[in-house]
């Protein structure tokens, strides 16, 4: 392995190790205390991404709404969220910890062939839906999504598309777009990035190896879109996003491109029914705060709340759907 790759790999291992240590310390600080007193929220990704945003918004809502006294957010990045999932699995019976999860983790589980799944957690709540967008630099020659798709079909290898982790929702949306416009998925060049920040840097760079088209959650691009540096070509949502001047996939004649990135919370396995009920109540109070309502509006999310058996059934069906979709798209 080249020296540069060795250094990068060691860096990733070191970051993961430090995150795990911080997480263990945070979990220990909550021992013997009820979740109302001291709650640890795991964001299974680096700071600045979608899961981190949900965790920070939830932290703020629980603090300002007097739902929980102390809320700590711990980032455990890597492998489509499955490193965080593995850490959560080691906390069986710990009722003062919850982890943010969603569609990306289901893809990570399927891609990694993980022995663990969300069935090895205690589901707490589905909170909201977050929507994907396809974006390009403001000076891109692609003025519409159809402009890009036409050029992509003519030369798929020459137009790499950037997004988050391999097998995640960004990758699946890219594959759905390819299939919808007869671009052979195996010919598609997809460039994964560890977070939204790295993806936007790539989009704005003209250096070799960077990408000219990116797919991610709207909030990863929001600041640069509002600053006029990026332009949204289309949104993967049932309706237009308020304040975003871009058509939906249905408007563009691509209703089969339809993946939605839901956001939810799970706790470790092995907690008691009473402890699960308390965490569900915390989630219900969280989404009832003014701060969370402001977060929903600010981030262009849509409320999509589910608890108990309804959320249990949703997770089982959603994992099966993602598994099947990844196989159908040739990504698993």
From TrEMBL:
Q: Which Gene3D superfamilies match?
A: Bordetella uptake gene, domain 1, Periplasmic binding protein-like II
* Family assignment from sequence similarity: Belongs to the UPF0065 (bug) family.
Species whose genome carries this gene = Pseudonocardia ammonioxydans
Write down the InterPro entries for this protein, in alphabetical order: BUG (IPR005064), Bug_dom1 (IPR042100)
Keywords of the record, alphabetical order, are: Signal
What is the residue range of the signal peptide feature? 1-24
Q: Which domain of life is it from?
A: Bacteria
Q: What is this protein called?
A: Putative tricarboxylic transport membrane protein
